[in-house]
């Protein structure tokens, strides 16, 4: 844990996120143009996909890949259930809003994952390349699960239904992540070498600027949040803690090595703020983005980056026992 | 003097992810077209927002020119989802050239 | 037939750094909201300009829907700074649905 | 009560590469200025389009405030190229402050 | 041919293009912000210009440069003639549209050229640096030629005339390509070294994302095309085939080495979709962009990237004889 | 001087600026999307801040840092006084416009500084890392000074006052420069190594494209300037000359080594066109941007880049005496 925590707070990546939070809190007019922020998020997804695909091409497929994919899909589909129960009872949300929020916590945040990978690599525990496929696989089951919770089966016209399904299975993140993953597998290490100055060497720098922007957005959003209660604020801290622990235990249980188990914990702990909000806007327009975006983006995301990645890593290391600690 | 005719101009502010739902309705009531403008920020009962393309929390302004009847049909078609989808609709008379298009 | 009521639509073109001054006034006169659209280029007595975000030499279009009285209050509140701040204001009647909001 | 006068507001949707042709005409008929807004996507008889800046297949919205006579002159000047250049023109009355500018 | 074809389909550059086509065909909402796409196209032009200029500064001017420049200008001016005839008769276009389309096929596509260079370099046959000057020289003669075909001499006011001429000779691509070429020549290898991490190392990665976007645009355009007939679709395949063969034969005939001959073939085969559409919108607003953009961007461009570059390279290799084949 | 002048005109960075000027003067439609230009300016500030912070972390704090910071603040606050006097008398500006312009000349231009650093490094005279802190410190005193000159103390509501103070002390450039500087100091050389491919290797290339854009903007602005007199044009050349000399003498006097003395001269010579115009638009909306932006951006900025950096460097070298010249 020490290593990971230290890495967290001297890593430029995390420091830029803190700078963004700070700038927004003091009401500076610093802002990243949205076209650029969008472009950076596409770049990060393409790069992480490629890298994962190349790693799989290089190392071949680990025997655990099947079980971890299955585990990921199950987690994405099931984690919203407990979240939904908590949000309705303790959080006092109506069914629609509880379902919408729950979907966010079942799904994953690409940037949280990427930041965790940076920190794990610095600590000498890189996760396996196929974890990118797990990341992609976990994006969407939670959306279905959240929708079922929010309004049961049935309803909608078939036109809306097909819109929704397209949004769920062919949303930009899923297509780009899996597409780049496939490209990485086909091109392999030699093909990737050509583009690695752009996609590998530039990666952390882009991540810095992107996290600067996320810091700005997260802080501005919470400062103008009107519909967030303290109950929901606490839940937005508790869910990543609990889900992260579930994830890291389950990951260790099925035999993932320490880096991958930590990464899986982070995936469970993370909450989506790109793919799921867009899907919810379409599928549950009555749900309030002021609730689900503020919880996932302004509370859970910073908590994961600044605290929870460190906790999860420490837990994974502890679970792996003394042999698991490698420099 | 070029001749002009009077038509309705309807402008609808909608969250970008919901814009397609609005334009689908415009197509369904038989209006000949629509145009979408970007929007940067705003403020309403739910507080202020700024364009946040990454999270999809940005808005678009959809404008459409139509005859009085088609405009009324559009308003009727949109009325039920106006509140649930958080749409803002304004409408007024404009003069257009080559009015037979609309 | 969905019922509509008549409100004023006010649009104000302002230099982006000054836009917040305008929206503050809108808030002060008690109008329920406003929306800002980006602007690309223009030409007036001071010559042509193009959006230059780096130097802050870009403009924004602020639109607001309000009742006749609040619109008049807004116009009165903005009139003194209209020339000094180089604002361009136009206003007209529009039909809106759920007019009680404005 | 701040005094307002009535002027015409003209808005023209044009392909971006053709926007300068429109603004040249505005200048020629002696109108004091114009402002260009970006446009994101649209649909008409020729199908849907999305902003494609790389190929120049994007559109702009040109707005201009003018007196009734100058507006009429502008409409007359644009009428011949309206169809060939695929322009969409709408025009309506607005109240403005400091109307002597226009 | 084998090598080039293989390189084509394992190159990340081409694979990202295919991903873009795929994403659009399944109606995913994946989209690159237009400000970024525009920026990438400017970057690519600046980089290719610089690289060409530096190569010329390094190697000096080959004796063939004069003749290949002349050949390029002639091809750009003359290729529209046959295209026009075919488009009017077989394609059943009116004079205005036939002239507009013909201009596109005489002119060149920077990105097709750049992709060909990547593939040629991977196959060990890099074209000469001065081919960038040929690329720039071929952009505009076709515009004049297409306009003459569309409406003869005369017409227009002198104001419109001067607008048009500016658009033709000082359009963004020409100025940026030739300007960067000149900068590359002045700065030379040592000056270029300072900026090469940005302009050289990052190049292929940017090309990947740009081609992703071009794939999206090309596929979306053809899916919503309303005015394209199957006759025009076939012509959009035939013209690059024929023009490519003409180019590679002519290039070999004047003594270009195999890489440059292939590159010249690709220039002849390629159709503009940046400079010429903008010029046509101004000069022939009555012509239908739904025809010329769809043909050049949605049919010819993918055909060149996926098939024709390979064919042209194979032909150039064959023409060069057994000695020309180097690994 | 020879070296620096030569470096100036064979550096791609400067050549791209000239290309931008040229393209605008011949009325080419070349343009960089504004979202990208804004993004590049943020990137440059983050990179220069980081680099400075890392340099300070590495070398520790020079004994002169306190005095040069003080000197910088004083220069920023005092240089507007002479400028104001000249602008009112010789320039015939009213008080408001004279104060607004004067503020620009007391403050600094990040890109002028960055370009000077490039040229100084190529000439073997890199300035000290802490000069970035001086740059940040000099941004805002001039704004206060210019406002005092323009309208004395008093006036404004407290609401406007606080708006203004936020704009002055928490404007985007100051926050980003100082924030990145702090991150560089915390992360140190090892933390910076992770992100250096993005922030260090890519730097000069981005600067090329940014200066291309600045060239376009500067030239277009002067071509459509309506309110600029030849008197003001001359003052926009004289002020950087005089301020630059004051700066380089003062810098040498307090014992800065030759590179830092030159850099300090450039800071004094440079005029802001990012932070100050935005502050003036808010604080002095009656002042005419057609005057202050045209002077600082279209005359002083190109003059500094193309001529004055060379002059100032030569002076610094001369002042340092024969011993000061190190390769
Ligand atoms: N009724 C309409 N309302 C608003 N915009 C329209 C309308 N019809 C056409 N447009 C716009 O004008 C463009 C060209 O229309 P068209 O000439 O019909 O293909 C479309 O792509 C839309 O952006
Ligand atoms: N009176 C108004 N005038 C203009 N735009 C408004 C107005 N009220 C609301 N809006 C816009 O509509 C959005 C949603 O409003 P609301 O539903 O009131 O939160 C706001 O963020 C504004 O962009
Ligand atoms: N008649 C007009 N119609 C539309 N926009 C105008 C008009 N006059 C001025 N503008 C806009 O207002 C800005 C400032 O105008 P001015 O104060 O006249 O320089 C111009 O650059 C245009 O964007
Ligand atoms: Na999760
Ligand atoms: Na060609
Ligand atoms: Na200065």
From TrEMBL, chains A, E, F:
This is Sodium-dependent bicarbonate transport family permease. It comes from the Bacteria. The lineage of its organism: Bacteria, Pseudomonadati, Pseudomonadota, Alphaproteobacteria, Sphingomonadales. The chain crosses the membrane at residues 6-28, 40-57, 63-86, 98-116, 128-149, 169-192, 198-219, 231-256, 262-284, 305-325. It holds the Pfam family Sbt_1. PANTHER family: SLR1512 PROTEIN. The keyword Transferase does not apply. Keywords: Membrane, Transmembrane, Transmembrane helix.
From TrEMBL, chains B, C, D:
SUPFAM superfamilies: GlnB-like. Gene3D superfamilies: 3.30.70.120. One of its GO terms (biological process) is regulation of nitrogen utilization. One of its GO terms (molecular function) is enzyme regulator activity. This is Nitrogen regulatory protein P-II.
């Amino acid at each position: 844990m020490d290593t990971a925590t230290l890495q967290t707070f001297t890593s430029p990546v995390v420091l830029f996120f803190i700078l963004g939070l700070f700038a927004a809190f003091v009401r500076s007019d610093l802002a990243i143009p949205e076209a650029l922020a969008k472009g950076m998020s596409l770049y990060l997804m393409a790069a992480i996909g490629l890298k994962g695909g190349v790693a799989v091409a290089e190392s071949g497929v680990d025997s655990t890949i099947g079980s971890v994919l299955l585990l990921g899909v199950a987690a994405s589909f099931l984690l919203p259930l407990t979240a939904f129960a908590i949000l309705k009872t303790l959080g006092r949300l109506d069914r629609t809003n509880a379902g919408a929020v729950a979907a966010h916590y079942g799904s994953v945040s690409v940037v949280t994952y990427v930041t965790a990978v940076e920190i794990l690599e610095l600590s000498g525990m890189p996760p396996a390349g196929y974890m990118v496929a797990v990341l992609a696989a976990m994006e969407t089951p939670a959306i279905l699960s959240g929708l079922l919770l929010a309004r049961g089966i049935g309803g909608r016209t078939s036109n809306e239904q097909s819109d929704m399904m397209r949004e769920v299975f062919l949303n930009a993140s899923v297509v780009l992540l899996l597409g780049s993953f496939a490209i990485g597998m086909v091109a392999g290490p030699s093909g990737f070498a050509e583009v690695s100055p752009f996609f590998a060497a530039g990666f952390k720098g882009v991540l810095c600027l992107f996290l600067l922007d996320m810091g700005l957005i997260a802080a501005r959003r919470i400062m103008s949040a009107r519909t967030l209660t303290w109950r929901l604020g606490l839940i937005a801290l508790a869910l990543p803690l609990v889900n992260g622990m579930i994830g890291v235990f389950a990951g260790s249980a099925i035999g993932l090595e320490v880096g991958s188990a930590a990464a899986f914990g982070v995936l469970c702990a993370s909450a989506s703020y790109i793919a799921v909000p867009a899907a919810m806007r379409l599928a549950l327009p009555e749900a309030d983005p002021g609730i689900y975006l503020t919880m996932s983006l302004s509370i859970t995301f910073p908590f994961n980056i600044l605290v929870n990645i460190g906790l999860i890593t420490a837990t994974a290391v502890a679970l792996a026992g003394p042999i698991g600690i490698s420099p | 003097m070029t001749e002009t005719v009077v038509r309705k101009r309807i402008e609808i502010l909608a969250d970008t992810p919901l814009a397609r739902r609005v334009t689908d309705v415009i197509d369904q009531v038989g209006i000949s077209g629509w145009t979408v403008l970007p929007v940067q920020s705003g403020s309403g009962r739910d507080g202020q927002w700024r364009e946040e393309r990454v999270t999809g929390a940005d808005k678009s302004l959809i404008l459409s020119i139509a005859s009085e009847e088609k405009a009324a049909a559009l308003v009727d078609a949109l009325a039920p989802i106006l509140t649930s989808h958080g749409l803002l609709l304004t409408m007024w008379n404009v003069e257009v050239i080559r009015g037979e298009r609309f």
